[in-house]
Amino acid sequence: MTRARVIVNGGTMKKKSTSGTVPNARNMRVAYFCMEIGLRAEIPTYAGGLGILSGDVLRSSADLELGVIGITLLYKKGYFRQRINEEGNQTEEEVSWNPEDYLELLPQKITVTIEGREVLVQAWLYRLQGVTGHINPVIFLDTDLSENRSDDRAITHCLYGGDYTYRLAQEIVLGIGGVRMLEALSCTHIHKYHMNEGHSALLTLELYRRFELYTNPLARVRRRCVFTTHTPVASGHDQFSRDFVLRIAGSAIPEAIKNEVFTDNALNMTRLGLQMSEYFNGVAKKHGEISRQMFPGYQIESITNGMHAGFWASAAFCKLFDKYLPGWAADPYSLRYVLSIPGQELWRAHMDSKTNLIGHVNKAHNAQMDAEVFTIGFARRATAYKRGVMLFSDTEWLKQIARKFRGIQIIYAGSAHPKDYEGKALIKQVIQKMREVKDAIRVCYIENYDINVAKLLVGGVDLWLNTPIRPQEASGTSGMKAALNGIPHFSVLDGWWLEGHIENVTGWSIGPHPDQLQGDVDKEDFEDMYNKLEYIILPIFYNQRDEWIRIMRHSIAINGSFFNTHRMVQQYVLNAYFQ
């Protein structure tokens, strides 16, 4: 069997010393691979929802004392820092951070082969501690070593940067390098390799090489692999031509399974993950259905995403839950008992969180907002299918609604991929529309949306808005985080909201059910959105405080208690990890 060449060099230690071992290495049973993992804003190794979800999954795994080790890449230049000028144009700046401030450099090194040359890979360790004190490791792979040539040193510099060669090189480091590094770190009892999206699917080829001298090696690999797909959009699945793959990664592809690797003369990373796994799933019930249509022949299950309750509850709600629901962070299902918390205390916690948000927005952006005014939050990646400008479809109608009551405030956040010029144009359009309504509505677009900004928003607005084109929202987790903090969801029926929506109980729908679409759907959606704001939502908020608190309670009790990563991880344990 082919084995990785392992190099141990204790002399490479930098600021933080280490024993060269990872905590509980031999007790790790699941290796969780993801292109991005978001643990904290100061470690900018995430771009958005996929990375935030991965961080939450790993937090819950540590809380539940499950032996799960995370594997990702170390991006020394991060994703990017978003800047928006007066005209609404997004520009990108490199992120500067020092891994030594948060991570431990490990002495073990391995090699991978890219375009026929050996590339050295080192690892950094983050110790992720759960609520019981249990520690799980998260490993960040890094090619920025002096022994590598300059373009190889840069492989792990930027998240989602560069061309196809850069992307495939990163996926070689993540998938193949990740498996080799696990062995080097003495994580030799891995029971399941979980690929969170297709970026890491090349790990299956490395596993195959380890079993190729045994009987039925393909079956052995499949028994050890779990694959999760996150996108219902074809363009979201990495695909490379056969000739290109053979040039960049040819030595990694066992001759015996080339027919498994290539379909229609190309490597589709999602199809590879499906082909080489025993269990595969989408991230909401509807998304599982869409994924089965996209990839016929595979019985793709669904495990609906969640959020880590202990991490995303605002400080005020943490204090409130601690008072009335001790142990809620370890057992988020107990949040269903929030129905017994006095309404005025629930409202006070919300207003404390809202005051915190409004104070930040006023200080950072001179927004001149008022904590007593109804505030809508919208924070998503700026891309066409999320329809970020839909709230401003008829600015005169929107201003009329605001003047009819005691006002509306709107807070936006979200960045576009540097090469998504349509997404950048949408940001500019939103900001132009904000100028059209500012005489009647206070508005703010917060730049550089990160974990810290997200925690303020999902804890402090009054209503969470979501407007995707059906059925392109695989799941969505920002609305789950808002629901945890008692913020009702107002959304198109797609993704998780098809499961969490109860009209006038946990929030409100926008437009028709996806099974009843016909005619001008955009027009029907925005008219329904405005009508519900004018005749249902704002009247309840301003005139029926007890009714609003009832909806807040049910948002927490029904959705906060269920759409969390503790439940999600437990489903993976039962359905995928330890069958």
Nutshell version of this structure?
This protein has two domains: 6-13 and 24-306 and 568-577, Glycogen Phosphorylase B (Rossmann fold), CATH 3.40.50; 349-563, 3-Layer(aba) Sandwich (Rossmann fold). It is built from 20 helices and 20 strands.
Can you give a write-up of this model?
By secondary structure, the chain is of the alpha/beta class. It folds into 2 domains: 6-13 and 24-306 and 568-577, Glycogen Phosphorylase B (Rossmann fold); 349-563, Rossmann fold (3-Layer(aba) Sandwich). Helices cover 39% and strands 18% of the residues. The chain has helices at residues 49-63, 150-153, 164-184, 203-211, 217-224, 242-249, 258-261, 269-275, 285-294, 309-312, 315-324, 343-365, 395-404, 421-437, 451-460, 478-484, 497-500, 521-543, 545-560, 565-577, and strands spanning 6-8, 30-33, 68-73, 81-84, 90-93, 104-114, 117-129, 135-142, 192-196, 225-228, 239-241, 266-268, 279-282, 301-302, 374-379, 408-413, 442-446, 463-466, 489-492, 507-510. The chain has a 10-stranded mixed β-sheet. Strands 17-16-15-18-19-20 form a 6-stranded parallel β-sheet, with helices on both faces. Helix 3 (164-184) packs across helix 4 (203-211) and helix 12 (343-365) packs across helix 19 (545-560). The longest helix has 23 residues, at 343-365. It is globular. Residues 1-17 have low confidence and may be disordered.
